[in-house]
């Protein structure tokens, strides 16, 4: 195979991986804004939800629809979650929430600490797939973690708001249908990327590369 053919193949694979990376990382634009009105949520009967990072806030919003009000603590991608210093207002948001969604795996320890001191039902995404401190913490790129965390969030909603249990089940089914489409694309791409080596300056995409069977 020529150098040019190898280069084209590498570029095609890189483009495919980049597309999947974007799809896995992105969620609804509303959740990513980080805006919410907790007092409005309480008065309207919506479940108050707080997420440490917008990747999980997006999932939480998709699974709750109009029955939830999601607040994201971190919305800026240029700030490291591990080093983030929450404000008193940030901590207070955990105190009023009925459901808290954190990443775990020591990625956002401040969020775990804040949530554990409240009555909120805590969903720790990493723990849903047995990922612990010391493992790669960028778990929103893992298909298994996304799926498990989504089910845990739905269960938390049904516990907090049993009158809309069927609604949450329906939204969960719809979410998984979209996730299945993403998984199909990942499997399709993995046929081309299996056992291919990759290099990265950061470990952010490790879980996605693993799903793509890259080495």
TrEMBL record:
<keyword id="KW-0813">Transport</keyword>
<keyword id="KW-0732">Signal</keyword>
<dbReference type="InterPro" id="IPR006127">
    <property type="entry name" value="ZnuA-like"/>
</dbReference>
<dbReference type="GO" id="GO:0046872">
    <property type="term" value="F:metal ion binding"/>
</dbReference>
<dbReference type="InterPro" id="IPR050492">
    <property type="entry name" value="Bact_metal-bind_prot9"/>
</dbReference>
<protein>
    <submittedName>
        <fullName>ABC transporter substrate-binding protein</fullName>
    </submittedName>
</protein>
<feature type="signal peptide">
    <location>
        <begin position="1"/>
        <end position="31"/>
    </location>
</feature>
<dbReference type="GO" id="GO:0030001">
    <property type="term" value="P:metal ion transport"/>
</dbReference>
<dbReference type="Pfam" id="PF01297">
    <property type="entry name" value="ZnuA"/>
</dbReference>
<comment type="similarity">
    <text>Belongs to the bacterial solute-binding protein 9 family.</text>
</comment>
């Amino acid at each position: 195979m020529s150098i040019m053919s190898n280069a084209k193949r590498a570029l095609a694979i890189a483009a495919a991986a980049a597309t999947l990376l974007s799809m896995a990382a992105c969620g609804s634009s509303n959740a990513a804004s980080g805006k919410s009105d907790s007092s409005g949520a309480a008065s309207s009967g919506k479940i108050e939800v707080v997420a440490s990072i917008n990747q999980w806030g997006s999932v939480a919003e998709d699974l709750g629809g109009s029955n939830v009000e999601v607040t994201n603590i971190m919305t800026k991608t240029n700030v490291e979650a591990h080093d983030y210093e929450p404000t008193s207002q940030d901590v207070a948001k955990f105190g009023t929430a009925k459901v808290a969604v954190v990443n775990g795996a020591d990625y956002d320890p401040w969020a775990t600490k804040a949530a554990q001191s409240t009555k909120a039902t805590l969903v720790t995404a990493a723990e849903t797939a047995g990922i612990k401190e010391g493992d790669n913490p960028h778990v929103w790129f893992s298909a298994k973690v996304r799926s498990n965390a989504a089910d845990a969030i739905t269960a938390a909603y049904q516990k907090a708001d049993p009158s809309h249990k069927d609604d949450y089940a329906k939204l969960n089914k719809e979410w998984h249908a979209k996730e299945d489409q993403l998984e199909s694309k990942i499997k399709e791409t993995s046929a081309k990327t299996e056992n291919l080596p990759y290099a990265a300056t950061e470990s952010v995409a490790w879980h996605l590369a693993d799903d793509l069977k890259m080495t």
